[in-house]
Amino acid sequence: MPASLSLYRLDTSYDVLLKNISLGGCFFPVEEKLPIGEKCQIVLKAGEGLETREVTLTGIIVRSDAAGVGIRFIDISPSHDQLAAILSRAS
Q1: Per-residue pLDDT of the chain (91 residues; tens, 9 = 90+)
Q2: By C-alpha distance, which of 8, 51, 55, 7 is closest to 18?
Q3: How far apart are CA 74 and CA 2, in angstroms?
Q4: N or C: the chain end with fewer CB closer than 10 Å?
Q5: What beta strand segments (E) does 1-91 contain?
Q6: Nearest-CA neighbor of 55 among 89, 29, 8?
Q7: What span, in angstroms and rounded, lies between the C-alpha atoms of 66 and 46?
Q8: Where are the domains of the chain?
Q9: Distance (Å, rounded) from C-alpha 66 to C-alpha 33?
């Protein structure tokens, strides 16, 4: 699933293909080590063409290593139903 990651305090963003995502969080495969505890914004892109939808989520980095960063979603209540629908179609 195409997604972008933006860090609030750092002027940094990444565009990747997510392979690991759930209602609780996701894993971003980025080569750069990012600070644990950093708040971030994740934008998921689902569908194609005119059927493309975006879901914006807020998260916090809970893991960072050479393989990427693990992000726990926080305050997803406004986007929970949209995320659940995207995940059910992707599986």
Answers
A1: 899 999 988 888 999 988 899 889 999 999 889 999 999 999 998 877 677 788 899 999 999 999 999 999 997 776 777 888 777 776 5
A2: 55
A3: 20
A4: C
A5: 2-7, 12-17, 20-21, 25-28, 39-46, 53-65, 68-74
A6: 89
A7: 27
A8: 2-90
A9: 7
Q: Assign domain 2-90 to its CATH architecture.
A: Beta Barrel (2.40)
Side chain identity at residue 71, one-letter code: I
Close Cβ partners of 27 (under 8 Å, ≥ 6 residues apart):
18, 19, 20, 21, 68, 69, 70, 71
Longest dimension (CA), the chain: 36
**Verdict on whether the full-model pTM lies above 0.90:** no
